[in-house]
Every structure is written in structure tokens, then in C-alpha cells.
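Field log, afternoon session.

UNIT: design team B
ACTIVITY: writing a sequence onto a fixed backbone
BACKBONE:
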């Protein structure tokens, strides 16, 4: 069996920094358009090479969750290098004030350290106070570089107080911050946000959050057709898909105040076997989603008839007596979708025991 692809073999961030720093090594201005063009060309090459390596490894080990983690890891390193280059060589400040600080934070699915090839890169630029010209310039440089690399970026620039205030009234923002992960910059800003978020937003509001997320899930299921047995299922949004697993993660993290779904074993919500089933479902669905994005070159989420045969081949299904490879693959998919439903019932039963009556599955 081939050894898993090591993260540090995908991208050497320090070597990349040295390459970019060499472009301005003789006192050249990093904001010069010619320098920016060179920086972008180098980053494009790194991005293309790493994505090709990740796709090739997916076809070998067939692990969707590891593929998603590798894509996230590479994205992390590139954002850190772009940030450092912007701060050191494009908008350097000799004596920064207290306001000229920033934390770059991954939110949404990216905050969970998972990305599909076509996923949005959701970023929060966390500020200490109001926006400054320096902060605005650095953020703009990072965003334009990511856009020019071909990334789809969702972003917000807020201070800690704004994050707390908005997350109290907007469940979408609250969910994004729930999944927040520090990327780079001033970590004390991030630590302050998460401490205040836990104390001032999450504490005592578990039932309210669960009711909102389950209502959101019900509406999503209604839009997708209300069945997990559709012949062309939506891998992300459909019933029994990745979003349902993510909803379980949100509920577990919010209500039980755990950092990882594995912690649900210790508090008696999942058995080891049930947690293993959760991980199998997650890995399988991520494998399908990543293959779909690589095959189509876009964020395709519907497993159409045209894609099913190709995905079955990529995942190693072959024809058997009385059943074609694509039929075996789709049968496996529907069994996994049913498992996702079963796991949802387990979580909801545990919540009912704790008198969270809003949990209806």
C-alpha cells in the first residue's frame, strides 16, 4: 500500500517565501506591477502543480477527506505567504500603531480545514478597531492576488465587537464564526474573538441555534426534492449529503461545546462504531465531491448520469455478475446517504434526552 501523501511534500512555504523575497532582494519596490506579475506567475505554477499532485493522489488512495485537507493545507500556506509578502514588501510599516494589526481567519467550510477543488475560500479579516488605510490596502492586495489565481473568495472585514454583535442576530454569521480557524497575523485578536464568542454568544443559546439549523436543513431538503434516493442527487445540499453531516458537526460543536466530532464518543452521544460510520460517510462523500470538481473544472455538486460512470471508475468500482460498476457505486452512495440519516437520528435522540424539544428529525 502506498504511504499517505505528506502535507509538507506538497508545498514548501519557506522555499516559496525565499523565491518571492528574492524578487525584491535588491531594494526593489514590491508594489511595482512588474514584480506583482512575477509573484503571481510563481504562485500560479505552485497552485497548478500542487492541485495536480493532490488529484493524482486522490485517484490512488481514494480518500476524500484527506484530499479536502490537502487542498486546505496548500491554500493556508499560499495565503500566509501572500500576507507576509504584502506586509513586508508592498505595504511595509516601520512603526505600526495599535490599529495596524490584523488576523486572517478561515471561516465556513474552510475553517474546518477542508476544501473541494471548486470551493469558495471564506475569509474573515479581523481588525482591532475600525479599518485603516494600511489594513484596507493589505486586504485588497491579498484578495486581488487570490482572485487572479482563480480562487473564489468570500470575505468580510470586521473588528471583534462587530463580529459579536452580528453573530447574535445572524445565524449564518454565527455559524461561520463557530467554525473559525486562525490562519495568520495577530493571534491575540483571534483568541479574543473566540473567547468572547463562546461566553457572549454561544453560552445558553444551544436550543435556539439547533432549532435554526434544523429549520434551515428542512428548507434545504424541501428545495432538493425531499428524498435521499434521487437518481441525480446533490452531493452537497441533498438529503443524506455533506451538508447534513456538517449540520451534525455544527450542532455537536455548539450544544456540546466540543472541538471535534470524535469528542462525542467521550460524552456518550456516539459509540465508537457510530463515529467510525460518521467518518466513513464523510470520507466517501468528500471523495465523490472532489472527483466531480476535478472532472468538470468547476464547483459541480449534482451527481448527474453523465458523471456517475466516470466517478465509479475513479473510485475503483468494476462490473460484477448481474450489476454494472455504476450501479454498484450508486447503491453504495444510497446506503451512505441512509447512514447519514441514521446518524442524524442518533444525535437528535441524545438532544431529546437533554430536553431540547426543538430537535425534530
Amino acid at each position: 500500500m502506498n504511504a499517505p501523501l505528506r502535507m509538507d511534500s506538497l508545498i514548501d512555504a519557506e522555499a516559496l517565501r525565499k523565491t518571492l523575497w528574492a524578487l525584491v532582494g535588491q531594494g526593489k519596490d514590491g508594489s511595482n506591477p512588474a514584480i506583482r506579475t512575477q509573484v503571481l506567475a510563481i504562485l500560479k505554477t505552485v497552485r497548478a502543480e500542487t492541485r495536480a499532485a493532490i488529484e493524482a493522489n486522490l485517484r490512488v488512495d481514494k480518500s476524500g477527506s484527506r484530499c479536502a485537507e490537502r487542498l486546505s493545507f496548500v491554500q493556508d500556506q499560499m495565503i500566509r505567504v501572500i500576507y507576509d509578502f504584502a506586509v513586508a514588501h508592498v505595504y511595509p510599516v516601520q512603526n505600526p500603531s495599535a490599529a495596524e494589526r490584523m488576523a486572517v481567519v478561515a471561516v465556513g467550510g474552510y475553517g474546518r480545514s477542508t476544501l473541494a477543488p471548486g470551493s469558495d475560500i471564506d475569509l474573515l479579516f479581523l481588525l482591532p478597531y475600525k479599518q485603516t488605510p494600511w489594513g484596507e490596502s493589505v486586504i485588497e492586495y491579498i484578495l486581488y492576488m487570490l482572485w487572479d489565481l482563480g480562487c473564489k473568495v468570500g470575505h468580510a472585514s470586521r473588528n471583534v465587537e462587530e463580529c459579536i454583535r452580528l453573530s447574535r442576530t445572524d445565524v449564518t454569521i454565527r455559524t461561520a464564526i463557530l467554525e473559525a480557524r486562525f490562519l495568520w497575523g495577530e493571534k491575540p485578536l483571534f483568541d479574543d474573538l473566540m473567547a468572547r464568542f463562546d461566553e457572549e454568544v454561544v453560552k445558553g443559546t444551544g436550543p435556539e441555534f439547533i432549532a435554526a439549523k434544523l429549520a434551515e436543513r428542512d428548507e434545504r431538503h424541501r428545495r432538493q426534492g425531499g428524498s435521499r434516493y434521487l437518481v441525480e442527487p446533490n452531493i452537497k445540499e441533498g438529503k443524506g449529503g455533506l451538508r447534513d453531516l456538517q449540520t451534525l458537526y455544527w450542532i455537536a460543536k455548539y450544544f456540546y461545546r466540543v472541538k471535534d466530532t470524535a469528542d462525542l464518543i467521550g460524552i456518550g452521544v456516539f459509540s465508537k462504531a457510530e463515529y467510525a460510520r460518521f467518518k466513513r460517510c464523510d470520507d466517501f462523500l468528500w471523495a465523490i465531491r472532489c472527483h466531480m470538481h476535478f472532472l468538470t473544472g468547476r464547483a459541480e455538486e449534482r451527481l448527474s448520469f453523465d458523471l456517475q460512470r466516470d466517478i465509479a471508475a475513479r473510485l475503483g468500482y468494476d462490473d460484477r455478475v448481474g450489476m454494472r460498476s455504476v450501479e454498484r457505486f450508486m447503491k453504495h452512495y444510497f446506503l451512505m446517504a441512509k447512514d447519514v440519516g441514521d446518524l442524524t437520528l442518533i444525535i437528535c435522540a441524545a438532544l431529546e434526552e437533554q430536553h431540547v424539544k426543538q430537535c425534530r428529525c
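LOG NOTE: Residues 167 and 174 are 4 Å apart (CA to CA).
NEXT ACTIVITY: expression trials, pending approval
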